[in-house]
Design brief:
By secondary structure, the protein is α/β, with parallel strands linked by helices. The protein contains 7 helices and 5 strands; from the N terminus they run E-H-E-H-H-E-H-E-H-H-E-H. Helix 3 runs parallel beside helix 4.
Length: about 170
């Protein structure tokens, strides 16, 4: 099974992915931001994004073949339905059980999460970027699939993971 966690920065994708991966007997968590951290880094570089998706598919195939892993959690920001579908298309030959969730929350909740973890110039950049991504993702979600929306405004990470776990058929 492959579970994709999408959403703007500061929403809690990484925390959710770590906690969700711990629910499986054996799983691999793949953080798209870390795996795709290349230098130089250009946010809107199609070649870089394709390289990341190919790398994710390669890593999953390697973990399946060499480690016997069957469950994967990927967290990353997908800004368009086409981008998410591109990754799904690359992953389908490896596992046809692919679930995608888009974490959403009130702007005030995301802002509070960012301010709790970031300070100084980093906080200002992350606050601006989350607002930009929020607008991009909301517009894109109206025209296509960015993952099943899960409002995490009033949910702890554990509660959000409980919802995802139930929706992917996990045992309580």
């Amino acid at each position: 099974m492959i579970v994709i966690i999408n959403g703007p920065n500061g929403i809690g994708k990484t925390s959710t992915a770590w906690e969700l991966s711990a629910r499986f007997d054996r799983a691999v968590m793949l953080d798209g931001d870390h795996i795709g951290a290349v230098h130089p880094f250009e946010i809107y570089d199609d070649a870089r994004i394709t390289y990341l998706y190919r790398t994710l598919a390669h890593l999953i195939a390697f973990h399946q073949r060499e480690g016997g892993y069957a469950n994967f959690v990927i967290n990353y920001v997908f800004e368009s339905p086409e981008s998410l579908e591109d990754l799904r298309r690359r992953l389908r030959p490896l596992d046809d059980r692919i679930y995608a969730f888009r974490l959403v929350a009130a702007e005030s909740a995301i802002e509070a999460r960012i301010l709790a973890r970031d300070t100084g110039d980093d906080a200002a950049w992350h606050l601006n970027r989350f607002r930009e991504l929020l607008a991009i993702q909301e517009a894109a979600a109206r025209r296509g699939d960015l993952g099943e929306a899960l409002d995490t405004t009033a949910l702890s990470v554990a509660e959000a993971v409980d919802v995802i776990w139930r929706r992917v058929g996990g045992k309580p």
